[in-house]
Amino acid sequence: MKKTTLFLSLIFCSITLLAQEVENRFQLGARAGVNFATITGDDFEDPNSRTSFYAGLVAETFVTEKFALQAEAFYSGQGFDIEETTIAGVTVTPDAEFQIDYIQVPILAKIYLIEGLNIHAGPQFGFKINEEIDTDPTGDGGDFNTDAIKDFDFQLAAGAELKLTRGFFIQARYTYGFSEVVEDTDAHNSTFSAGVGFMF
Questions:
Q1: Of 65, 100, 146, 167, which is the most buried if we count CB atoms within 10 A?
Q2: DSSP 3-state helix, strand, coil percentages of the chain (rounded to 5)?
Q3: Which fold has domain 27-199?
Q4: pTM score of the predicted model
Q5: What integer pLDDT is reported at residue 140 of this predicted model?
Q6: CA distance 73 to 69
């Protein structure tokens, strides 16, 4: 009886320690923040950036104490602003937003420099879910559907993150698209983002 009790106790302790180890090495979370997005390239004059937002989910797993891998899936509002142009006092194009919205899926390698502070980088895969020109971004009207932007964008993401107490973190990141946004045109997504998150 004593041997059985001791054996069961050892099993219980082992399961508890394993669960704690898994919890420490794998975490789920959420992140959200603001995007400052534009298009850059030789065939595209640098327009003003579009200010929008991103929001989604995070999964991080530690390989060692200082190295981790992180996968994400999030909505990302991107694109650029179009300035009003006039010819002989006549408005040719009004102020508008060219809205290009994606589901972004980055796979990041994270290096922890000191406790809580990491730098990270990796490939990011963008899947377009919406594309339109909006002459009334704050209202319900002014939407014009377009079909000029490619459905997929391959990007590189890099940034820094600081983990605070109680699971909260802040981060800043830059992503650059290596795919042509428009077929046979040197135009690429360029996005700076900053925001906050929480690991459960």
A1: 100
A2: 15, 65, 20
A3: Porin (2.40.160)
A4: 0.81
A5: 61
A6: 14
